[in-house]
């Protein structure tokens, strides 16, 4: 394995001086006299692509990561030739490209301050072994600069002082610091002088990032092949960097069905059918809400994908329907390895049609996975994806399975040292044929894409649900994800918290961990603390290997069951809040979880915080990560916050102790927020929602909240049949005004809001709805500061006595 270290490499080559320059529409080309060309494309005023070749010409441009839906267009593009450099100006950025060495310096167009500068800049080393280059970039990093992102790395949020590798890897029972693991998302955000920028290095080869580890003032990234090809994304707000990166690599193509945001129960494995039913019945009996039940590999016949073990599941269609009648959506696992078996139709079809990956010299890529020796479809070939997507017809359309779980798609191979395909395996890569060195990091993504395509087609007119383990940048367009085979330890609870936040800041919000830990068995306390965090992750599923005992909410003691129920109920109550956050993510690329640094980058205290995060727009969550805790110290960001459990108001911008015995974890609500809540349901759609509660938290000042709604499934919302309510709150010493604005053609079945006021600093004396006085009794306003109001109100005005 070639591991570059910048200093040690003697074979580095560098661009020489610029001898020619040309402009074609939105793209500039700077050529040096040693055949290096920098291609600089202005995608938006704040998004610029930098691409280099060392041969004078570029290979065909192709990316699995960049979406065709990415926004493009800029307001300004000016190029000036100066004595020592070319100056490229957009409305947001000024770039200087040095004539004598091609180095790039990027400034904020408004205040002309330096944001990012090349240190050695682009350089490379020729790869004798494989041909092509090891491509490298180094940038100056500044004192006080922080770095965030990179997908699922299980280390502190701030990456400064560390080095990472991107190579999608099956990592059973990984731990803190294990690198690489399941995902390769070569995107980071840098933050210094209160300004954030992002760099997305769109190169699928094994790549590395060094954040001031090797040299204190240098950030570098390099890959073992392909092009130096990166996107520079300017904020200066970190949230905008993440949103713009997400726009570039794609927002989810549609909202998930609302049920997918409910609670999911999984285990390796629930079988036979009677066991599955026993589990689902227990949920209903104990009144613990649950929307999805998973079938792991044992539902199949000898682990052959797209088959059923008919002794354990004699009539899957009937079972799936019965589960659905009870509110349970069935999700089944599908792995990429296809058992070598001439009597198995999926194997035969793939063989006959030449869909399997081959080694360099012609034999099939053969490897062991659950079914024994397997071949593996080449998902980087469109016709293979089309075939694969069609295989879902029976499962989805006929049997009625509602979601598909793609696993082992790194691809994982058992009993081999590198845990995956050898480098020489060939891939189609959409006509750009290549070796596994280039295709490895996208293999799982393309499998998930093919699955998504099939589930989407056959679930229509309903929306698809897919989950994947492996991912490259952009996978969020197709599927949700989980963080792989974690362990039932307190350290892993810490890791789960980090990974969900990190994935969100890497464009992949729809993520969660195996709650309770996959390997080993948690104590009741750990399970409880994990649920208390997990219900605030966009994807919420208990999963375990089952080797060490059961992990259902009732597998511990009654106290655990009761607390777990209370928290799962809270997730169901907050569904409209979560759904609104999801809509913002799908519409605008806004991460659903915001680490404190994203929430308030101007406060340097947030730059090294990892535990606390903002869920949606207005809830601050901090998990309890230690046994026997009765509370913890945590950082409350600037502003006024209400303790969710006690309504006690605290002023942030500091660390403080917060009580949280086993019944609670620290949750705070931002003052001024309007939090929508549903009544508890055992599953989405169980009951007709007759009223929505709005929890209104007083603020002396202004705050705005939103509530998105639609039919909770299907595509009507894309045709305007959604409703988007904005609540503008203005609070003063002795009055409170809430203005409501609604857009969209959808009208939910419920007619009323139940408004609950929290922290009103006055006693309600008078109420006006749409400028008319209303008797307090008409809105059922009583001592507990709760009132009922028609959902169509435009303005609610509360006056103190
Ligand atoms: C892998 C998955 C795990 C699954 C198991 C059996 O370890 O990560 O979630 O249960 O395979 O399919």
From TrEMBL:
Keywords from the named record: Glycosidase, Hydrolase
A GO MF label: carbohydrate binding
Biological process terms in GO annotation: carbohydrate metabolic process
Protein name as catalogued: Alpha-glucosidase
Pfam families, A to Z: DUF5110, Gal_mutarotas_2, Glyco_hydro_31_2nd, Glyco_hydro_31_3rd
Start and end residues of each Glycosyl hydrolase family 31 C-terminal domain: 589-675
Boundaries of every DUF5110 domain copy: 691-759
Endpoints of the signal sequence: none
Record family assignment: Belongs to the glycosyl hydrolase 31 family.
Coiled coil: none
Span of domain Glycoside hydrolase family 31 N-terminal: 38-210
Domain Glycoside hydrolase family 31 TIM barrel: 254-581
Superkingdom of this protein's organism: Bacteria
